[in-house]
Protein: Carbohydrate ABC transporter substrate-binding protein
Organism: Streptomyces bathyalis
Amino acid sequence: MRKTVRATGASGTRSNTSIFSKTGTRSAARGAVALCAVAALSLTAACGGGGSDDKGEGGGASQADKETVKLPKLKGQKLQVAAVWTGDEQKNFEKVLQAFEKRTGAEVKFTPTGDNVESFLGSKIEGGAPPNVALLPQVGVLKQFADKGWLKPLDEGTKAEMAKNFSKGWQDLGAVDGKQYGLYFKAASKSLIWYNTAAYKNAGVGEAKTWDEFIKNSQTIADSGVDPVAVGGGDGWPLTDWFENIYLSQAGPEKYDKLAEHKIKWTDPSVKKALTTLAELFGKKELLAGGNKGALQTDFPTSVSKAFDSTDSPSAASVFEGDFVGINIAKDTKAKIGKDAKVYPFPSVGGDAPVITGGDAAVVLKEGKASNALMTFLASPEAAAVWAQEGGFLSPNKELANSAYPNSAQREIAKSLVAAGDDFRFDMSDQAPAAFGGTKGEGEWKALQDFLKNPKDVAGTQSALEASAAKVFKD
C-alpha cells in the first residue's frame, strides 16, 4: 500500500491474481529489463512536483486541453468523489475533477477518506450515503466490496474507453467474477532505492545490483559514520514492501502469486528464507537510521527526510520506496534529484530484480449518468494528462503521451511502466483483505513491525502472519 501508491484478476475467474499465473515464469524478467530504464533517473531531474527540466517529445501536455472522449452535459448534477489523497495529491486530483466539471457542467465535491478506506466507505455505504465514485488503493478491498454487492459494474462506454487505453493486465486488476468494477487511474512503481549522493560518495560505494552488495555497502556506509538506511517502520506498509520485493526476487513469481492468495501458508520455508534475508538488514541496528527503535518511531515522510535532510551529513544515506518518494524529496527537503538525490532499482535477491507496482482504482458506488461519465473521463488520456503535467503521478494509460510528464525522470519511469505490459506483480498486501494487508496495528503491518522490533524471531513472525492470514482468508 502506499498509503498511496498499494494482483491482478482475470475476467471470468474467481481469483484476483490469475494473470500472474498466466504470465507464469516469464517472471519479472521483462519487467526487470524495463525497469533498468529507471536507472536513468539517477542522471535526471525531479520526479515530484511540476516544472519541466527539459522539453518533451511534443504534444503530450496538450492532451489535457484536448477532448479525447465524448461526455454528456450534466449541468446541475452533483457528484461526490472519495479517495485517500491529501495535500498535493488531493490538489492535483481536484484539477482533474475541475477539468471534468468544465467539460460537463457537473459539480464535483472531493472527500478524503483517511488511511482506513474500507472503514470510511463501509460506514457511508451502510448508512445509505455513499459517494458516487471512490478510488481504492487496495485491490483486496475492491474484491471485498464487489463480493458484498457494494460496487456497480462499469458501463459499456467506460469499458470501451478502457479497452482502447489500458493493457489487459490493468483491466483485469479491476475485474471480479467476469465483471469489470475498477479502473486503475493512478499507478506506482514500488521497487526503487533512493540515495544521498554525498553519503554514498564519501563512503566510496555505488549503486548495488544485488542484495549482498546492498548489505555490504550499508555496512561500509555505517563504518563511515552515517546511518545507512532510513526505514519508515512507524507506518506498517513500507515494511510489507520490503518483504514483497525480497520475496518476489528470491522465491519467484509463481510462489508470490500463491502467497498473495494464501494458497501457500506464511509458515512456508520460502517465507522463512525471505524474512531471514530481510533480517540481514533489520537485524543489525547500526544499519538502520536510529536503530530498530528509531525505525519503529519513524513514519514514511520522515524516513525520506532523514535521507535528504543534508547534503553533507544526512541522518541516513538511503531510503527504499516507490516513485512517489520524489514528491517528498521535492516538498520536504532542499535536495535536488539528479544531483543530491539519485535512485536505482531494488537489488536482485537471488533471482530477477523485482518489479512491483501499486495503484488506485476508481469504482462506482452510486450509479447514474454522472458517475458513468466521470469514470469514462478517468479512463481517457485527457484526464491522465491533467495530473501528469503536474508531476508526482504515473498512469497505466498507454495512450497518454510520454511527453505529458513534466520532466525526463518521470518519463523514464512511465516508459518502464507501460513497457512492462502485463508482466508485473501488484503489491501483495494490497491484494489481501484490508484486515490483513492494510490496517494499522493489525495483520501484516503489525506482524512486520514486531519483526522489525525483534528480527531474530523469524518463526514467531511466520506464526503471527499465518494466524492472521488464516483468520482473514477464512481457510
User: Anything to note?
Assistant: The CA atoms of residues 205 and 217 lie 6 Å apart. The first strand starts at residue 78 and ends at 83.
